[in-house]
Description:
Blueprint: H1 18-28, H2 34-41, H3 45-55, H4 69-94, H5 104-125, H6 136-145, H7 148-156, H8 158-176
Helix pairs in contact: 1-2, 1-4, 2-4, 3-4, 4-6, 5-6, 7-8
Amino acid sequence: ELFGKKVDNLDNLPVLSETVVKLLDLLDDINSTNKEIARIIALDSVLTAKIISLANSPIYAANKPVSDVLQAINKLRRTETKNLVVTIKLSGVLEEVHLKNINMDLYWKHSLASAFLSNKLMKEFLDKKYYVYEQQSSFYIAGLLHDIGLLLFDIIFPEKLLIFFILYEGIEYFIKNPVINLFCCCTPTKNPSNSF
């Protein structure tokens, strides 16, 4: 139950596959080997190609080309591999979602920017004695998923989310333009700022 309304359609929400969940567990398990991880990744040709491609990109100074997924994991290390797995698989899952109020391209750009910024802030400001290397992906993933609740709202309660957006835009306009006729905002529109 959410907002006093029984939610029946949660079974229709997209989820990560069992294979991806198992892969993420292996990436977090300090007792697992990179060979085990590579074996799971190799079952997914798209994921394999993207991980090898990233490992060969200029970002990682690919002076010696990587030709298989195990070499890619060894080069990227587990944190980068996990970040990449989550990003690729989440983007695939979100492609299946039909939204009424949220522009998925803008949402995705915002989420990726937040993920990269969270990762950068962690590396710049957090003292390394407070976390182990394997925990670094937590910052990236937190940034990536920080607005995921908006998607849930748009799937289950699209009309409530639209009202929220209208109110938010109206409040934002009031903050920027405090001397206005307060009664002008009573009529909801798709873009409240146009009504002033």
